[in-house]
Amino acid sequence: MKERVCxxxxxxxxxxxxxxxxxxxxIKTVHAMSSAxxxxxxxxxxxxxxxxxxxxxxxxxxxxxxxxxxxxxxxxRELEFIIAGCxxxxxxxxxxxERIGLPSNGTALSAARRDKSRLSDALTSAGVRSIRQxxxxxxxxxxxxxxxxxxxxxxxxxxxxxxxxxxxxxxTDADVRRAVNAIVGKTNCLGVMNRFALGQEKINGQQYTVxxxxxxxxxxxxxxxxxxxVLVKGAAxxxxxxxxxxxxxxxxxxxxDYLVQALKAxxxxxxxxxxxxxxxRMGPVLVDCGARLQGxxxxxxxxxxxxxxxxxxxxxxxxxxxxxxxxxxxxxPYRRKAHALCVSLVSDMDGVVNGYPGLESIRKLxxxxxxIAFVPIGQNLVRTTDLASTPGIVYLVSNDLTELDNDxxxxxxxxxxxxxxxxxxxxx
Length: 428
Prior knowledge:
With 428 residues, the chain is α+β, with helices and mostly antiparallel strands. It has helices spanning 18-24, 63-74, 90-100, 116-125, 139-149, 173-183, 250-265, 299-306, 310-319, 321-331, 359-363, 401-413, 416-419, and strands at residues 4-9, 27-32, 53-55, 81-84, 133-136, 154-158, 168-170, 197-201, 206-215, 218-231, 237-244, 271-280, 283-290, 339-344, 351-355, 368-372, 380-381, 393-398, 421-423.
């Protein structure tokens, strides 16, 4: 029997769960690294033992040298597919899959799938609604553009990062200067130097997250969640609550139709996609999109609510493309099996975590499904300013909306020093 082998580029974040899924289909995995070092935010999660082989390029290689290194290492192998495990692996996965002749999104728009300004340009070129923007390393250029556009408030963020890192809402020249100075010259959480800042008009409306899986240009929406945020002093806003929508709701169809157009504009025709979309009085507009799995999510809780999750759907698409396509075409819009809330805790205090005394009470909530991404014992809990500083995420799943609402209220009533046992830094 022919051996089945695939390559995952940068299988960090949610991508680290793919090897186990592929193993269930009898597919071996080779892990290809896009750089010699794993980004710091992913180092504690990486386990080389789950891969059949790990390919690590040398230090200080150029992007093309990294591509050539992997092409040489993979030469002569019979591979089924190559995919990105997380955001940092998108461009290398595009390049390797295209050059080897495997299912690919191609390299023509690789940069637009990583760079938020190029993403917007690609949408505009295809006639798809996009957010007005400016790119500069100079705060004065941004404030001039803001005045010319007559915006009362804008959003400033890095061109290429993750986890809502360094996203600022700015309404004054001083706000703009602080934001640009905080971003430009900083090495972001993916290990990339921010050379420019992106200024965008602020879209006021309901935000959603939408996950999809595509195969040869045919896109299937796997789930849609509302995405509610709270304002945070010194940053912009952070996610506080996501709520799973039913697949047949009108807004889900509206979002699905828009995302299909956006993915076509970005030439994301194969594999998973994760999008953030705002709907205002003019309709949907893309805030961000990744040609990869959604990060920081509970596969267990989402399977309870949906019968599948973004990881299992992606693995099925690649391991059994014919079966996947036939099923998804028959299925139509996805169906929710239960109501679900994804609750992001928000910290207004800091300290070193000694334990989780409140977690037992949380787990006793009738609708409790899972708790993930809690700050590890011995590490610092800090005030929440972005996704990376969220102290923990709790999933509630139930068919009883009253139960779900009651449990959510109880969870929100808990202070962080009730959830976590904290001590001051420097204390033993």
